[in-house]
Structures are given as structure tokens and as C-alpha cells.
Automatic annotation (TrEMBL):
UniProt name for this protein: Eukaryotic translation initiation factor 5B
Protein family (similarity comment): Belongs to the TRAFAC class translation factor GTPase superfamily. Classic translation factor GTPase family. IF-2 subfamily.
GO MF entry, a single one: GTP binding
Domain of life: Eukaryota
GO cellular-component term (any): mitochondrion
Domain Tr-type G stretches: 14-232
TM region positions: none
Location of this chain's protein in the cell: Cytoplasm
Keyword Cytoplasm: yes
Keyword list, A-Z: Cytoplasm, GTP-binding, Hydrolase, Initiation factor, Metal-binding, Nucleotide-binding, Protein biosynthesis
Length: 362
């Protein structure tokens, strides 16, 4: 089985990277998510985009469709199977997270309102990303608010900009320069994505509009390119489990449940799991693994699909006993046949101090 895991762990067999979105309030984080998620009703669930617990999964087919307009030369490579985007922008558990090698966020989108430039929470987010060494891109959102902007829905940014009046192009240049300078003052070198010659050294600005959809193809292309180039190693399948508690919720008929993001590995019904609790470690057995019904079946009375087994990366709801005091941001471990439950309990609880220091400083 180890050989099998080794064979599977290659750069040709990558798991889906996990993407979070953060930034100052009102910059358009929610709106951007809505816009990328937007499914074409006539095509059913466009390219198989699925709503998950706390996340949305974009299989590569959907991303291929959505990036076609900026991939006319067909040179873009699609090696990762898809992209898992965490739905709750600026979610507390992201800020709560232990800093030690968490995979809840492989890549981030930092959203900045192009009309406002840097704002207090932009700087907070910047520091957070830097502390975690999380690669990120900056969406310069709301370009449609540049005076006299003529939208071309869902277009690539460069083409849209080229078709604007000189005065619009100048305003854009002006605002870009100001924001670039402000980033520099905060110790960060950034460049417009198509002028960025060194993605390792410079962060890319990608201008977007969550209203017109312009620049969103560029943003998706950049996310995919960046994860494939910079993170192939991290995205190989591991036999090891990586799982994080996102939220603790009481659900009618299920009792207290936890929403988790499974970043790597496999979870099975019946697994013995261990996580941090307010009154000490929690050890319990998975009673049910649940994901939402596919969109088209939303009318069905039962809200969830049950799974015997789920594989990374995805968002899933876990029903089990004794979850009342589980802590968002905690790691979740599975007790394997050769593991000592108490050792694992000690291991997760060693994160606790960090969890709380993060809570109190955020
Ligand atoms: P969040 O707090 O970052 O999640 O921001 P929201 O997504 O809730 O957006 C805040 C406000 O900005 C809402 O009124 C949105 O309609 C508006 N907004 C978001 N994106 C854009 C955009 O690209 N263009 C324009 N004109 N307005 C936007």
C-alpha cells in the first residue's frame, strides 16, 4: 500500500489546490465568489461545479470554459484536477489557524477596491499571508467604476482595457501606480500580471470586476498557473490526512456537526477521529459524512448526500457524538490501526495554545 501511495505521489497526479479569498470589507469578496460560481442554468451545472460544505469545487472542465477567452493560443496547461475555493471570505478559522504547515489555504486572492487602494484590513491580510508564506495574487476589483468604463462582459482584462477611451486608460494607470506604491511602502513588490516577469519576487495585480466579470478569466488562469508552477510538490497526494475544522454547527435532526475542509487524504464513515475541544481533546467516531445535494436537486427534502468515503480536497460535514465543544481551526486526525489514540490527542492539543493566541490577537 505504501508503494501505491508513493506511485500516486507524483507531479502528474496532483490534488486540487485550495484557494481562500480575503481583504478589506466591501472590496467585493462575496460578489467575486458569486460571479465565478455563477452557473449557466441552460447548461445545467456548468462543467460540474459543485457546492460543498463551506466551499465550492471547480473541476478543470469548468475552469477551462471560464478561461477560454484568455487562452486563445491554447498554451495554458491544466495539470491540477480542479480548484477548491473556500466560500466564507475572511472566515475566522482562517485567522484562527495554527501557523504550522496548514493546508487550508494553498493560494489566496487578496481583494483590493481599485477606487480605494490599500485599507486597514488589506494590510492585516497582507501580514497574515506573509506570516503563513501563502502565495497570493491581488485582485484590483471594481474596474467598472473607473469613470466612463465601457464593459465587455466576462472579457479578458487586457482586451477590455485596450478598447477603453484614453482617459479611462489613464485613470487606470494612475490608480494602479498609486496602489503599487502603497504596496511598496508596506514592503511588497507588485506588478500588473502581464508585466510581471518574476512571479516568485513580485505579486501579481489582476484587475477585475465582479459586476461585469471582466478580468475573472485572467484571475482563474493566474491561480491555476501559479499553483502548478510553484506548488506541485505540495499538491501531490499524500497518504497522510490533512483536515481542518472550519465550523461547529447544530443541525436539526443531526445534532452538533462539524464542517471540515479535507485538504489531503481520505475520510471514511466509522473512522475514529480526534480534534481539539474546549474541555480537552475530543475522540469520537464518524457517524455520517455529508455533502449538499447537487444544485438541481435542491428541492429534495433531505438536504444532504451521505458518503461512505470522501477524498481530498473537499468540504464535508461530519456528524458524530460529542462535538459540542469542538474548536474551529483545530486539526482533525484519524486514529489509524497503528496509532495510539492518546498520542494523537496530545498532538492536536499541542496546537491549542496557538489557536487561542490567534483568536485573541485577531
Ligand atoms: P465583501 O464585504 O468584500 O464581501 O464585499 P461585497 O461582495 O459584499 O461587495 C460590497 C459592495 O460592493 C456591494 O454593494 C457590491 O455590489 C459592490 N461590488 C462588489 N464588486 C463590485 C464590482 O466589481 N464593481 C462594482 N461597481 N461594485 C462592486
Amino acid at each position: 500500500q505504501i508503494d501505491e501511495a508513493k506511485a500516486a505521489a507524483s507531479v502528474d497526479n496532483l490534488r486540487s489546490p485550495i484557494c481562500c479569498i480575503l481583504g478589506h470589507v466591501d472590496t467585493g469578496k462575496t460578489k467575486l465568489l458569486d460571479k465565478i460560481r455563477q452557473t449557466n442554468v441552460q447548461e445545467g451545472e456548468a462543467g460540474g461545479i459543485t457546492q460543498q460544505i463551506g466551499a465550492t469545487y471547480f473541476p478543470m472542465d469548468a475552469i477551462r470554459q471560464k478561461t477560454a477567452v484568455v487562452n486563445k493560443d491554447g498554451k495554458m496547461e491544466y495539470k491540477v484536477p480542479g480548484l477548491l475555493v473556500i466560500d466564507t471570505p475572511g472566515h475566522e478559522s482562517f485567522t484562527n489557524l495554527r501557523s504550522r504547515g496548514s493546508s487550508l489555504c494553498n493560494i489566496a486572492i487578496l481583494v483590493v477596491d481599485i477606487m480605494h487602494g490599500l485599507e486597514p484590513q488589506t494590510i492585516e491580510s497582507l501580514n497574515l499571508l506573509r506570516d503563513r508564506k501563502t502565495p497570493f495574487i491581488v485582485a484590483l476589483n471594481k474596474i467598472d467604476r473607473l469613470y466612463d468604463w465601457k464593459p465587455i462582459p466576462n472579457n479578458g482584462f487586457q482586451d477590455s482595457l485596450a478598447k477603453q477611451k484614453k482617459s479611462v486608460q489613464n485613470e487606470f494607470k494612475d490608480r494602479l501606480e498609486k496602489t503599487t506604491l502603497a504596496f511598496q511602502e508596506n514592503g511588497l513588490n507588485a506588478a500588473l500580471f502581464y508585466e510581471n516577469k518574476n512571479m516568485g519576487k513580485y505579486v501579481s495585480f489582476v484587475p477585475t470586476s465582479a459586476h461585469t466579470g471582466e478580468g475573472i478569466p485572467d484571475m482563474l488562469k493566474l491561480l491555476v498557473t501559479l499553483t502548478q508552477q510553484r506548488m506541485a510538490e505540495k499538491l501531490m497526494y499524500l497518504s497522510e490526512l490533512e483536515c481542518t475544522v472550519l465550523e461547529v454547527k447544530v443541525i436539526e435532526g443531526l445534532g452538533t456537526t462539524i464542517d471540515v475542509i479535507l485538504s489531503n487524504g481520505v475520510l471514511r464513515e466509522g473512522d475514529r477521529i480526534v480534534m481539539c475541544g474546549l474541555n480537552g481533546p475530543i475522540s469520537t467516531n464518524i457517524r455520517a459524512l455529508l455533502t449538499p445535494q447537487p444544485l438541481k436537486e435542491l428541492r429534495i427534502k433531505s438536504h444532504y448526500v451521505h458518503h461512505k468515503e470522501v477524498k481530498a480536497a473537499l468540504g464535508v460535514k461530519i456528524a458524530a457524538n460529542d462535538l459540542e465543544h469542538a474548536i474551529a481551526g483545530s486539526r482533525l486526525l484519524v486514529v489509524g490501526p497503528d496509532d495510539n489514540e492518546e498520542d494523537l490527542e496530545m498532538e492536536v492539543m499541542s496546537d491549542l495554545e496557538q489557536l487561542f493566541s490567534k483568536v485573541s490577537t485577531s
